[in-house]
Amino acid sequence: MFSQTVEYALRAVVHLADCAPAAQTTREIAVVTKVPPAYLSKVIQGLCRAGIVVSKRGVGGGVALAQSPAELTILDVVNAVEPIVRIRKCPLGLKTHGVNLCPLHRRLDNALAMVEAAFAQTTLAEVLAEPTRSRPLCEAPSRKRLGLVEK
Amino acid sequence: MFSQTVEYALRAVVHLADCAPAAQTTREIAVVTKVPPAYLSKVIQGLCRAGIVVSKRGVGGGVALAQSPAELTILDVVNAVEPIVRIRKCPLGLKTHGVNLCPLHRRLDNALAMVEAAFAQTTLAEVLAEPTRSRPLCEAPSRKRLGLVEK
DNA sequence: TCTATTATGGATGGCAAGATCCATTTTTAG
DNA sequence: CTAAAAATGGATCTTGCCATCCATAATAGA
To answer: What is the pLDDT of residue B110?
Structure first.
């Protein structure tokens, strides 16, 4: 139900949050997140235009989060690449329904609202801070990442 | 986030539930639900193969629900045309994650689980019974549908 | 200034979803 | 038995998503 592009974007941003505030090259991100490099570059361009990340070209350049991981929610990222569009008026165009959705569409919209709320409540910092044995994107159990600058 | 086909399928099935246990022609359903007739016929074929509806050809034929509206949930319909696929193992293929999803994918799967649960809890009968002024798919406020056999 | 590095933009291709059309089959009514 | 009604299956078309490749622009370091 979530597109592949959303999945890729989230992986990239979580990894950037893990490295924040340091910048990473798209190639490095692609390796860690196991996303096709050429396509990842497109996804990141989108994130860049949406203001989620900032990029710098040339030697020593790369991509970094535009804000701190504590300020960025999953919803911010999702909405940047493939916005969750709520149902605001009757999809059949029925006048009498209008803003008051019929029982069917009210339920569909409620589902969207739940997802939206869940994503809005979670920041990237929280994703990384969660006390669990498996660490986002990484094979190894929770250990503090330090330098790790090489390819 | 829900595909157009899911939307179409739900409209069709809700209308059939409203007419249950009578059968309706796809053309009639297309008019009421405002779905492109030719495409609706494809969607209904899918519902038929999934066992959600049954169809009969020829004069007096049409499509009807396979079960009573009280036994059919929104989830049944959704899963018939575009199954909600839960995240059961690490999408990156990380061995150490396996079934224990990392914090990121755990949250994504939780969102899917919430939607799945919400859809599983609602039967078509409940959608139709809801005391509200706007009636599913229909312009008019709640009035009991009777004959209405003509085109 | 030259070169290596890195992101950017454009062009392109494959593929599945959405949508349409038509010939065929099934079924009932007359 | 014939004709009309209705679903079915196949073919086709368009569009957007996923993905790749390459030329170009920007940037830092030597």
So the answer is: 96
Distance from residue A41's CA to nucleotide C8's C1', rounded to whole Å: 9
- Which 3 state secondary structure label does DSSP give B46? helix
Q: Six-digit token pair at B111?
A: 């969102």
- Alpha-carbon distance of A139 to B2, in angstroms, equals 32
Match 């020593």 to its residue by tokens: A60
Q: Say if residues A63 and A32 touch (Cβ distance below 8 Å).
A: no
pTM surpassing 0.85?
A: yes
Neighbouring C-beta atoms of residue B63, cutoff 10 Å? 27
Contacts of residue A127 in chain B, CB cutoff 8 Å?
103-104, 107
Q: How many CB pairs under 8 A join A and B?
A: 124
Cα–Cα distance measured from residue A68 to residue A87, given in angstroms and rounded to the nearest whole number: 31
CA distance A45 to A54: 9
Q: Is the CB of A37 under 7 A from strand C?
A: no
Give the rounded distance of the alpha carbon of B41 from its chain centre.
15
Structure tokens at A13: 């941003």
Q: How does residue B135 score in pLDDT terms, banded at 50, 70 and 90?
A: low
| Tokens representing residue A136 in the block | 């986002």
Neighbouring-strand partners of residue B141: B134
Chain A partners of B91 at a C-beta cutoff of 8 Å? 7
Nearest CA in chain A to B10: A104
CB neighbours of residue A127 within 10 Å: 24
